[in-house]
Amino acid sequence: MGKRERQDQGRFWVATSELPVGEARPFYSKVNHILDQKGFDAFVAELCRKFYADRMGRPSLTPAVYPRLMMIGYFEVIDSE
């Protein structure tokens, strides 16, 4: 019953800038283009501004990302969040 050796667990956090970028599917590229043209991100950010703290912990997803993820789930028939 001695003290166990601790193993290095490695890094848990990976910055998104370090992840490989794959080719986008044309449908989603077009959806993003349309949403960008219409100012969707700024619109959703303004709607959600009152629900976000100025600074508290690690930054969350930007407000416009969640509806995009929900659309992908709907179009790809992913029935789980």
Explain the layout of strands and helices:
Elements: H1 26-37, H2 40-48, H3 65-75
Q: How does this model look, in words?
A:
The protein is mainly α and 81 residues long. It has a domain at 23-75. The protein has three helices and no strands. The protein has helices at 26-37, 40-48, 65-75. The radius of gyration is 19 Å and the shape is extended.
Work out the strand percent.
under 5%
Count of alpha and pi helical runs: 3
Distance between the termini: 44 Å
Percent of residues in helices comes to: 25-40%
Shape: extended
* Class from helix and strand fractions: mainly alpha
- H/E series, N to C? HHH
Low-confidence stretches: none
Gyration radius, rounded? 19 Å
Mean pLDDT: 85
Instruction: Please describe the biggest sheet, giving its number of strands, its sense, and whether it closes into a barrel.
Output: none
Number of strands: 0
Brief sketch in words of this structure:
With 81 residues, the protein is mainly alpha-helical. It has 3 helices and no strands.
Which tags fit this structure?
about 80 residues, mainly alpha, about 40% helix
